[in-house]
């Protein structure tokens, strides 16, 4: 009897210990032309994270139910719809109830930020944005995974008709197309980015929810040939009315007027800016291990 009691007690101790040292789960969101689970992309990131962080639960978001839909979602499912799907997956996953860290790749990064703003439960703790386009893009020099003709076609549609209603509905990239020569039109007609960046009205819910982040890490790829301008990866953009000179985040009205709460996050030392030499999403396992894994461990 004594033995049984002691054994039960031991079991209890181990369970509590496991619970209290449990690592924060991780949610991944892929970029355009990618999926949740390709072994050469997020599949391998998931593997590395699981090797480096013992026992960590990693969920790589698959939008639309299967791999083909997930791939297509990156081009053709409006971010609002994708966000509802993601919010539903995250809020019904029992492993995530106490919160999670989030890693977004390319456009997946701005989608995860939108998720933090629109879907606060369970809470996102640290958000790491890899080459995310938080102020949108103006230009599409390359289209990962698409043929040259499709890319050419997409570029034409974006250049000539990004703010047409049908294009906003049809093409994900149009919803974060940011034309600095037409700021007013962007603000009025972008159906996704202008909304989550509080360009039209200030949605206090977005500000309040974003403040709940413990950390917002933005990784910029210094030699990115896919994202224009590169500064959007640090939430900066072109100065209005031209497409050469850059306005860094801290000099932008968005920051100065604190329309999104970024200045407050910065004052609370929650914004982290990382730069890495290399092209879009090019980083090594060693870099990930050195710069990102420690952030995810505590
Ligand atoms: C602000 O954002 C929340 C969360 O997405 C949404 O429910 C609400 O309708 C928005 N409010 C306005 C005024 O757009
Ligand atoms: C990458 O960009 C940085 C900053 O612009 C520059 O200093 C560096 O020389 C570039 N590296 C390569 C390999 O082009």
UniProtKB/TrEMBL annotation:
One of its GO terms (cellular component) is lysosome. Keywords: Disulfide bond, Glycoprotein, Hydrolase, Signal. GO terms for biological process: receptor-mediated endocytosis. GO terms for molecular function: palmitoyl-(protein) hydrolase activity. It comes from Hermetia illucens. It catalyses: S-hexadecanoyl-L-cysteinyl-[protein] + H2O = L-cysteinyl-[protein] + hexadecanoate + H(+). This is Palmitoyl-protein thioesterase 1. Its EC number is 3.1.2.22. InterPro entries: AB_hydrolase_fold, Palm_thioest. Residues 1-22 form the signal peptide.
